[in-house]
Each structure stands twice: as C-alpha cells, then as structure tokens.
Amino acid sequence: xxxxxxxxxxxxxxxxxxxxxxxxxxxxxxxxxxxxxxxxxxxxxxxxxxxxxxxxxxxxxxxxxxxxxxxxxxxxxxxxxxxxxxxxxxxxxxxxxxxxxxxxxxxxxxxxxxxxxxxxxxxxxxxxxxxxxxxxxxxxxxxxxxxxxxxxxxxxxxxxxxxxxxxxxxxxxxxxxxxxxxxxxxxxxxxxxxxxxxxxxxxxxxxxxxxxxxxxxxxxxxxxxxxxxxxxxx
Length: 234
Known about the structure:
Blueprint: E1 2-10, E2 21-30, E3 33-42, H1 51-57, H2 70-81, E4 85-88, H3 91-104, H4 110-113, E5 117-119, H5 120-127, H6 135-141, H7 154-168, H8 172-186, H9 205-221, H10 227-232
Parallel strand pairs: 1-4, 4-5
Antiparallel strand pairs: 1-2, 2-3
C-alpha cells in the first residue's frame, strides 16, 4: 500500500478569501515503511502573508519572491501523489487549499488523483475524545520527538505525521500488514494443506503407574480436590 503524508503552509486561513499555498510537502510510505522519497516546494503566492499566519510558520514575503508559482510545480506534485492514499492532519484545511490552487489552473480536485484521504485529526478525536489532538499534542502522547518543531513547516510536519500515524494505527492493522509482507517475502502458505499423520506413542505400564502415583500425591495434598483423578474414575 502506498501512502503519502501531506502538509501545506498558507498565507492565511481561508482560500475563499484569496489566501494561497506557500509551501507543500509530501512524504512517501509504502507498506508502513518510509521510502525516503519526498516532494517539497516553497511557492510564491502572489500576495501578502497575513501576520497571524507568518507567526505560525515564520515564512516571510521576501523569502518567497523568487520561488515558483503553484502552476509551475503542479504537474510534478500530482505525479508524486497520484494514486496514493493521502494522510493529512486536519485534511479539510489542506484539501480545501489544494483544490483552490488546482481550480485556478483549471485542473481537477485532488480526490480525482488521490481518491482516498485519511484525516488523522478526525482519527485522533475518535481515539482521544475531549483531549488536545493537534500535532504537538499527538507527538507528546505517542512519544514522537518533535523538539525541532519551533515553528510549523510543511516537510517537518509531514515527517512527524508519518511517525504519529504509525503509532496511532499500530495494532491489528499493522499485524495484518506485516503478515501480508511476510507472505510476499517467504511465499504464501495454506493452513488447510494436508499434514503428515501424527505418530502416537502410548505410555508404558511403568509410566502409567508413575502417573497414578503423582495423582495420589496431588489428591492427598489437596484433600481430595484433584480434578484429574475424579475425571479418570470409572
């Protein structure tokens, strides 16, 4: 299974108000293992960044002046994520911004390229109702080292999300996945295949006598409570 952890940084909170994506990052995972492949770009949004957003991610207007526009990187981005299951923390936010960017260049919405999207914020709220479930809180809860996260950054956050997602989904899902991998590596096996006939060795008379003696000792020590002795009685 190919999954892509995805995160964006933006000029503000609402694409309907004209806010744009200024950073996009995607980290690849195949069969619950990071491959080392990732996609990461800073983008020139063609507009000013809101001060509140700048305080969150620390990206300045000046830094983005020589960066490409979204339409310059759209094909490369879609080639990287196409067909993967997207894993996003607070997916409606990032999906909304990506759809807005794609719409501006007359391209299909992101679900056209990646039909499956997992929202880890929704998962976390179901697993930990009434608790903080932002990425920092989840890192603390699942003992993921986020000491390098002084500001939000799309690539770092996507990498942290990969570790958090693995921790959140560790259990039956991972056991099934690991079993599937083992079958691929070692060949499939059939539990219903015919087995060799078992050889039954009967106890000797001496062994039976020793067994009866052991039961007598247990029965005496337990004041007649030896269940095995009662079951063997005619």
